[in-house]
Amino acid sequence: MIRSMTAFSRSQDESAGADLTWELRSVNHRYLEVFVRLPDELRGLEPLVRERVSARLGRGKLECVLRCRWAPRQAADLELDHERLKGVLEACREIETRSAEATSPGVMELLRWPGVVCEPEPDTGAAQQPALLLLDRALDELVATREREGAQIKSLLTARLDGIEAQAARARERLPEVKRKMREKLEARLAELLEKVDRDRLEQELVLLAQKMDIDEELDRLEGHVAEARRVLERDEPVGRRLDFLMQEFNREANTLGSKSADSETTAVAVELKVLIEQMREQVQNVE
Q1: Residue 88: helix, strand or coil by DSSP?
Q2: Do 196 and 64 share a structural domain?
Q3: Do 267 and 193 reside in the same domain of the chain?
Q4: How many structural domains comprise the chain?
């Protein structure tokens, strides 16, 4: 199945005392390159994240971001640092004795003072498994998006392959006429130079010229590349690199066809082939 390398997914869930959100973004890349950004409390998950991503994706530059908001504690669960609170109150009283304009802080101000309320360490162990399960959901969504876009790319590539086949057939139909005109042109030029044409020499020259301008092999190879590309498009595995190679082969045959062209219509075929191949190459750049 053809997959695009460009996609985005987002999965969110609240469990195990934390609000977790994964955001995955992937773009084109020759190989699989993964960037992971995790909260400090869950930094130990990075190897497992990379392992899960590698099992699902073959190519692309992927950014994996996990955002975590730990659930706030209930008022009944608050713990005060009594020594810290005592120190803050003593400092406030000293300031009041030195300044007539100083006022005592309110209760809420004291609770917000750094260190007065003991901040418990979040239960990171309880959040690890939910975070990994949520990552699997985000990867499912990302892969589904890549497959939907891949189906569109496959449709575009198939249409271009149809166009290449049509152009190759057009060039093949022209071959007999091209060879006939080539022979007539050569005979006319020799007749101008020689009173009596050496038929044996003429035949030899025609054979050599025909070999230099024969495009049968190029057309055969083009048709073979089209058939191979169609087979590759049906594979249930990453095929981007194989399609990259086929684009090079298509270009090689189109260039040779253009260099051997003996008439304007064959030249037009070569130009149209290059246009179709370039359109395919642009799409293939985004195939996993």
Answers
A1: helix
A2: no
A3: yes
A4: 3
| CA-based nearest residue to 216, from 168, 160, 269 | 168
Tell me, yes or no, whether 81 and 15 share the same domain.
no
Give me the DSSP letters along 241-282: HHHHHHHHHHHHHHHHHHHH--SHHHHHHHHHHHHHHHHHHH
CATH code for the domain of 12 = 3.30.230
Indicate if 261 and 163 belong to the same structural domain: yes
What phi and psi, each to the nearest 5 degrees, are found at residue 116?
Answer: -70, -45
What is the spatial distance between Cα 237 and Cα 137, in angstroms, rounded to a whole number?
A: 21
Specify whether 14 is located in the same domain as 79: no
What does the pLDDT profile of the chain (288 residues) look like in tens digits?
Answer: 899 999 999 999 987 678 899 999 999 998 999 999 999 889 999 999 999 999 999 999 999 999 998 776 544 456 776 777 777 777 777 777 777 666 667 777 766 667 667 665 656 677 889 999 999 999 999 999 999 999 999 999 999 999 999 999 998 888 788 777 777 776 676 666 655 556 666 566 656 555 556 788 889 999 999 999 999 999 988 899 999 999 999 999 999 988 887 778 888 999 999 999 999 999 999 999
Alpha-helix runs per DSSP H in the chain:
46-56, 82-98, 107-112, 124-193, 199-213, 216-233, 240-260, 264-284
Do 65 and 82 sit in the same domain of this protein? no
Whether the Cβ atoms of residue 5 and residue 28 lie closer than 8 Å to each other:
yes
In which domain, by residue range, is 41 found?
A: 7-72+129-147
